[in-house]
Design a protein that fits this description.
- The complex is a heterodimer of chains A (109) and B (118).
- With 109 residues, chain A is an all-beta fold.
- Helix content of chain A is 0%, strand content 52%.
- By secondary structure, chain B is mostly beta strands.
- In chain B, the strands form 2 sheets. In chain B, strands 2, 4, 5, 6, 9, 10 and 11 form a 7-stranded mixed beta sheet that branches. In chain B, strands 1-3-8-7 form a 4-stranded antiparallel beta sheet, with no helix packed on it.
- In chain B, strand 9 and strand 10 (105-108) form a beta hairpin.
- Classes of the chains: A mainly beta (109), B mainly beta (118).
């Protein structure tokens, strides 16, 4: 089973600054990596798929990079609505299966 | 508008079963798989399994094998997740999410809260 490890567990950043979140897979997942944002009391929202492609409606300040085992989600200039928990997720094509990281809480500094 | 409709709350006793519905709308039901993901209070996301409404194929996370059954009813365009032998640590919000053809889960329901308590 592939294990996804996110770091840090909590990240404190000021509005307007850049945030960099990391995700590491225990073995290569190629580019089959997605990122989600979850705000309190809400369902997760898909941000990035294929490691670097923004989902529909996602602002350009969100960008994903990486392949193989190491991935990064970058938020270029933090807005107030970006403070949330972020999860990475690896996926397998067939049969479909998924593993989530444990999450990174992005909080206001 | 694509939506995944889920009901609000279930309360069950330990040892009981729960069957959670999910009714997608805004797209052709059989064209996309459906995933079930749960989140215990204050915890992260946990994938439980996937079902194809087209053929009924399923793939369950090993942790839930033997205790979960996912089904679909194409006549009502509804997906179901049944979890048996409930324990207190099954208390969680249970989400259904569409399996996006692009990778990842692109549309999520608001979740059904299942509380297991004696």
């Amino acid at each position: 089973e592939i294990v996804m490890t996110q770091s840090p567990a909590t990240l404190s950043v000021s509005p307007g600054e850049r945030a960099t979140l990391s995700c590491r897979a225990s073995q290569s997942v190629s580019s089959k990596l997605a990122w989600y944002q979850q705000k309190p009391g809400q369902a997760p929202r898909l941000l990035i798929y294929g490691a670097s492609t923004r989902a529909t409606g996602v602002p350009v300040r969100f960008s994903g990079s990486g392949s193989g085992t190491d991935f990064t989600l970058t938020i270029s200039s933090l807005q107030s609505e970006d403070f949330a928990v972020y999860y990475c997720q690896q996926y397998n094509d067939w049969p479909p299966s998924y593993t989530f990281g444990q999450g990174t809480k992005l909080e206001i500094k | 508008q694509v939506q995944m409709m889920q009901s609000g709350t279930e309360v069950k006793k330990p040892g009981a079963s729960v069957k959670v519905p999910c009714k997608p709308s805004g797209y052709k039901f059989i064209n996309y798989g459906i995933n079930w993901v749960r989140q215990a209070p204050g915890q992260g996301l946990e994938w439980m399994g996937w079902i194809s409404p087209y053929k009924g194929d399923t793939n369950y996370a090993q942790k839930f094998q033997g205790r979960v059954t996912m089904t679909t009813d194409t006549s009502t365009s509804t997906a179901y997740m049944e979890l048996r032998s409930l324990r207190s640590d099954d208390t969680a919000v249970y989400y259904c999410a569409r399996d996006g053809s692009i990778g990842g889960m692109d549309v999520w329901g608001k979740g059904t809260t299942v509380t297991v308590s004696s």
